[in-house]
Write a structure and sequence with these properties.
about 40% strand, alpha+beta, about 200 residues, two-stranded antiparallel sheet, 12 strands
């Protein structure tokens, strides 16, 4: 929930991707206005092409960044109509000027309710932080570089790791996924080719 709080209250404006009727990607900037235990909420007007794409595809990918922190999410959305609309306007006062009085009825609320993604923080460049985000009843595959059982403990991987996030006190050595840049240098230098990327 802390990452969703950062997304909604600190970053707020995100880039959302869908696909158009020629199956080409389309992006637009959309504000994330609310979150709770059931997901993240945003809205759009019923007359927009974006609305039509949301209704047809029921899936989005979003990216947001501010002050060297980024959040990405991809997952399923649902239209919940006017539910939470007033709450969103109360929390996001600027919307009352964009859609005054009853004109807000042109809008519909969408909830991102089942998604996976990532939090990535490079505000301390020598000690980056990466973490997985899961919304709803779904699981996320942990991706990154992992060391296999054929590791000989030569420590060459550590010597080329920009973040020095490999524990070389063990054999096989262990890559700390929460600080890994996914640069792949460890896999390139491994003499046994026992370091592999999982997707």
């Amino acid at each position: 929930m802390n990452y969703l709080d950062i997304l909604v209250n600190d970053i707020h404006s995100t880039v959302i991707a869908t696909v158009d009727n020629e199956n080409k990607p389309v992006t637009r900037v959309i504000d994330m206005m609310l979150y709770d235990d059931h997901g993240v909420y945003f809205l759009t007007a019923k007359g927009k092409e974006f609305y039509k794409q949301l209704m047809e595809q029921k899936y989005i990918s979003l990216s947001a960044t501010k002050n060297k922190i980024s959040i990405t999410l991809r997952g399923y959305i649902e239209n919940i109509g006017y539910e939470k609309l007033d709450e969103m306007f109360d929390k996001n006062e600027y919307m009352k000027e964009i859609y005054p009085n009853d004109t807000r009825k042109a809008l519909q609320v969408f909830r991102l309710y089942e998604a996976t993604g990532e939090y990535f923080d490079i505000s301390d460049p020598s000690h980056i932080t990466r973490d997985n985000i899961v919304i709803g009843d779904t699981s996320q595959k942990i991706n990154g570089y992992f060391v296999g059982k054929d590791c000989i403990g030569c420590k060459l991987c550590y010597s080329v790791c920009p973040q020095k996030c490999i524990d070389i006190s063990k054999k096989p050595v262990v890559i700390d996924q929460s600080h890994c840049l996914h640069c792949g240098r460890c896999a390139e230098i491994c003499p046994k080719q026992t370091i592999a990327k999982r997707f």
